[in-house]
Design brief:
Strands 1-2 form a two-stranded antiparallel sheet. A two-stranded antiparallel ribbon has the order 3-8. The chain is 63% helix and 7% strand. The chain is mainly α. The relative contact order is 0.14. Helix 3 runs antiparallel to helix 4 (107-128). The termini are far apart.
Length: 332
């Protein structure tokens, strides 16, 4: 049996959707449980998914940059799984970065790097998952590329820095909002306003000329030109330099495989699913890219975990995800 439901959904698409929903439920439960301000974190997640990521994805579909196949849960023309994965990367990235001794201005670039690493295995697999459903043949999502555009396996090169930007803008404005929330003395009205203000600013920035410059050096160069390769290299190298030069392995508090396990489990499971889909379906031409992005991501998480192994857990002040008494015992 290859299909379920009246509107046919291929089994691999359905499995990917269910996995994303389950991981997101795990992430939301743990993040909200550990947060000092669970209502505010929930508003951040809600705003990011429904008012930012899904809004922009629908904007891209309307502009015929790409199309999606039918999913189990849709927001307009976009599978809910797409903004959910982006949200998972963002909130877990910010959670992890609170443990690292790194300036706030660096954090959005690191979150963006995590997003790109996740997408380097997700996108190649998704466009290869091609099925005929409801009278149409398509991939789980399909890029509508004009001839001659710079691409990686029929994915425009700018797509990967695009994940950097959606993560960068979202996390940057949310961090500013959290700073405002702290400065206000955690006034409830500020906590209820800033998530939506931050998301609105992120969306405006995402569709501004700044994004064109950061994706393909527009207006100096055209979309689809080799300038996209230059910007892809920049978005990979610059966060790496920040980690090597500014972070240098310094931690404020350790990360625990028990109390912080969604930070490690979510990206690992997403990548392992992509690897399994790739091998089981015989997409061997993209296997090297899926494995490379997965192992680089695993390695980065391993370095961050190892950096905190010799750091004693300390009480945290003004942290959204503080070390609790229970966490302290786990770290010991």
């Amino acid at each position: 049996m290859q299909y379920l439901f009246q509107h046919l959904i291929p089994i691999p698409w359905l499995l990917a959707d269910l996995l994303t929903v389950l991981i997101t439920l795990l992430v939301v439960v743990f993040v909200i449980r550990k947060s000092k301000h669970p209502q505010v974190v929930f508003l951040e997640c809600f705003g990011f998914v429904f008012l930012y990521a899904s809004f922009f994805e629908n904007f891209a579909v309307v502009n015929q940059w790409y199309v999606y196949g039918r999913s189990l849960l849709m927001i307009g023309d976009v599978p809910l799984a797409v903004p959910l994965i982006e949200m998972d990367v963002l909130v877990l990235g910010l959670w992890m970065l609170e443990r690292m001794r790194i300036p706030d201005w660096c954090k959005p670039f690191i979150v963006g790097l995590l997003g790109m690493l996740q997408d380097f295995s997700l996108d190649p697999v998704s466009i290869n998952q091609v099925f005929t459903a409801n009278g149409q043949t398509s991939g789980r999502w399909t890029w509508l590329l004009p001839p001659g555009m710079a691409n990686i396996y029929q994915i425009p090169v700018y797509n990967f820095p695009g994940w950097m930007l959606i993560m960068l803008y979202g996390s940057a404005y949310l961090l500013i909002g959290r700073w405002w929330f702290r400065r206000s003395g955690y006034k409830p009205i500020v906590g209820h306003v800033y998530p939506f203000a931050a998301i609105l600013l992120a969306l405006i920035t995402m569709v501004s000329p700044l994004s064109q410059f950061l994706l393909w050096l527009g207006p100096l160069f055209a979309k689809g030109s080799n300038a996209e390769w230059v910007m892809l290299a920049f978005h990979l190298v610059f966060p790496t330099i920040l980690l090597a030069v500014i972070w240098r392995g310094r931690m404020k508090n350790p990360l625990s495989l028990k109390s912080d396990f969604p930070v490690f489990a979510a990206p690992v499971v997403f990548h392992l699913a992509d690897i399994l889909f790739t091998i089981s379906a015989g997409y061997y031409d993209i296997l090297w890219l899926v494995l490379l992005s997965s192992f680089v991501h695993f390695g980065l998480l391993g370095i961050i975990y190892a950096a905190g192994r010799n750091v004693a857990a300390q009480p945290e002040k003004d942290s959204f995800f503080p070390i609790t008494k229970f966490d302290h015992e786990l770290h010991e």
